[in-house]
């Protein structure tokens, strides 16, 4: 996708934002402990989840920097989809099918943004966990049975309560940062390891505070 929305041609901040999102989504605990499938589909799930959080935060910027935030959001999304285009081609999707796949990915992107956003706005961890479970599984990539190692049981294996608790904590953490930091691509992502002890059931805590290790506490359709 052409990056024609940069306000300044030499503005590298959207790349910084994308790098932050990518690094946060690759935290090993997601795949080693929290049951996210370690495949292209699973990594897509986590990448989009973090991207949704960034777009939510940028959308809350008002005043004289609102236009700048909107420009950052568009440029970030352009970079994201250019990377997804490359990923599809690298996994063997034909040039003829790439546009269709990207359309499905865009629909998943928008659908998750709405589903996750509604649950986050309501402060409902269980609803968020349900949305995560419904939207995981890599349907877009599995349409061509790519990659071969995709696990069809990935959605049910995810500890969605733990991932949901992480997502809520991340939304709160970056929401408390200054607009200036966010616009520069600095995001205070939580350490996902803190959520590894949460059981895959309704949490025992009612608030969205970051749980401790001894706290007891599942894309296709929004």
Number of helices: 10
How far apart, in Å, are the first and last alpha carbons? Answer: 25 Å
Helix content: 55-70%
The main β sheet shows up as:
none
The percentage of residues in β strands lies in under 5%
Mean pLDDT: 81
Q: What sort of overall outline do the alpha carbons produce when their principal axes are compared?
A: globular
Topology order in helix (H) and strand (E) letters: HHHHHHHHHH
Counting DSSP E segments of at least 2 residues, the number of strands comes to 0
How many domains? 1
Protein architecture, described:
The chain is mainly alpha-helical and about 220 residues long. Helices cover about 55% and strands about 0% of the residues. α6 (about 125-135) crosses α9. The longest helix has 25 residues, at about 65-90. The chain is globular, with a radius of gyration of 17 Å. Residues about 1-10, about 140-155 and about 200-220 have low confidence and may be disordered.
Please give a handful of descriptors for the protein shown.
single chain, mainly alpha, 222 residues
Summary of the model, kept short:
The protein is mostly helical. It is 57% helix and 0% strand.
Could you give the topology of this structure?
Elements: H1 13-25, H2 28-32, H3 40-59, H4 66-90, H5 98-122, H6 125-134, H7 139-142, H8 154-157, H9 160-175, H10 179-183
Helix pairs in contact: 1-3, 1-4, 3-4, 3-5, 3-9, 4-5, 5-6, 6-9
